[in-house]
Amino acid sequence: MSTNWQRGAARLARRRPRPKVVEAMTSVLLTAVTVFGVVLTRTFLPGPPTLWPGVALAVVACAALLLRRDRPLPVLAVTLSCAMAQGALGYLLTPGVMGPLLVAQYAVSVRASVRTTWSTAFASAAGMVVAGLSHASFPDSLVLAVVNPAAWVLLSAVFGSYVRVRREYAVARAEHAAREREEEARHRVFQERMRIARELHDVVAHHLTLADAQAGTAAHLYRTDPDKAFEIVARLPESTAAALRELKATVGLLRQDTDPADELTPAPGLGQLPDLVEACAAAGLEVTVTTDGRPHPLTPVLDLTAYRILQEALTNVTKHAATRTARVRLAYTRRHLTLTVTNDTPPDRPAPDRLTADRRAPDRLTADRRAGSGSGFGLLGMRERATAVGGAFHAGHRPQGGFEVACTLPLTSDDESPAP
């Protein structure tokens, strides 16, 4: 239906006459109306004036209107002179006789400023008053000879001013709408940049933390268990390669639409959780994953959010926790997905990477303590991700020791079929 309507509008637009043709037809029609008004006014006048001078003045005034769009003020002067001359010849200045003058005054009011509009309007009205008073045929009809012509001129100026104001208002609204669209576009660009910045932070922080942990563990085990250290170093390129792949996929979002996108990998999700657990194991962190309830299919945004929260939580365990074990629990209900990451703190066993931790800079230790207390940037990022999809987030120390990160995400689908 919409397509048919658009095709009909296009056909009408093609059939629309050209502006020059419209101008010519309008001038011919206005000339005919003005000449008829001159003839009709002469018929009802006592002692009718000469016909041909009035007709000639009407034709000249209508011909001058062809230039009203380019030179409105000179055209107004010509039509005013013709109308005053007709009044001096003895014609009653009716709207039919004053048609060219009214059109010229309207053209000036639409295109000129407010000051010019009313200056010309009062000047034209004064000219009509002078023309009406100078003729002796209407001494007792001042309303017809004086008031009526001046009122029609002022009314034409009022109507032209109203049209000008409406056009200016329409232009202002269009400019305001354009500014709003630009502001909305800039806001969307800013949001997209913030999202990409969060993605870059998660990718770089997670993989570099794992690589740092692997390198520190390998250095610690180099003298006591060289084979184990060599195995850890051999798996180190896997972490860096994964970081490069995700970094390339994230930065690929900044490409232009014309750039080839065949090398872009899809956004990660819970389907990559086994790879994440394996990468943590390579860094010396044993992760146990349990799933409660029947898994639901997740939307891409929710799937990415859940994966990034688990990734950041396990990264924090790798960086800050003294224990080398963590538990991940995924609990599915009909409307929610709950993610829980917990780690225990052994009371008497030192952390394997204590030597590496002792070599950290003081500002690094301060940042670790701040993150462990629940005010780090990683926790803020996880909270922001959960809030963005309408979920709830909690992180804090457990009463029995250790740290816990819990997040509840709403499921947008009620389909309880198992996820692939």
Overview in brief:
The chain has 420 residues and is α+β, with helices and mostly antiparallel strands.
Question: Which tags fit this structure?
Answer:
Heat Shock Protein 90, disordered C terminus, five-stranded mixed β-sheet, 420 residues, rod-shaped, alpha+beta
What does this structure look like?
By secondary structure, the protein is an alpha+beta fold. The chain has two domains: 17-181, no CATH class; 269-420, Histidine kinase-like ATPase, C-terminal domain (Heat Shock Protein 90, 2-Layer Sandwich). It is 64% helix and 9% strand. It has helices at 2-15, 19-43, 51-64, 72-89, 99-111, 114-133, 142-221, 226-251, 273-282, 300-320, 354-358, 362-372, 377-388; strands spanning 286-292, 325-332, 336-343, 392-397, 403-410. Strands 1-2-3-5-4 form a five-stranded mixed beta sheet, covered by helices on one side. Helix 10 (300-320) links the parallel strand 1 (286-292) and strand 2 (325-332). It is rod-shaped. The chain starts with a helix and ends in a 10-residue tail after the last strand. 30% of the residues are buried.
Count all strands and give the number: 5
Sheet/helix structural class: alpha+beta
Bin the strand percentage.
Answer: 5-15%
Overall pLDDT metric: 76
- Whole-number tally of structural domains: 2
Radius of gyration: 42 Å
What is the share of helical residues?
55-70%
Q: How far from one another are the termini?
A: 40 Å
Q: Please list the strands of the largest sheet in the order they lie side by side.
A: 1-2-3-5-4
**What order do the SSEs take from the amino end to the carboxyl end, as H and E?**
HHHHHHHHHEHEEHHHEE
Shape summary: rod-shaped
Number of helices: 13
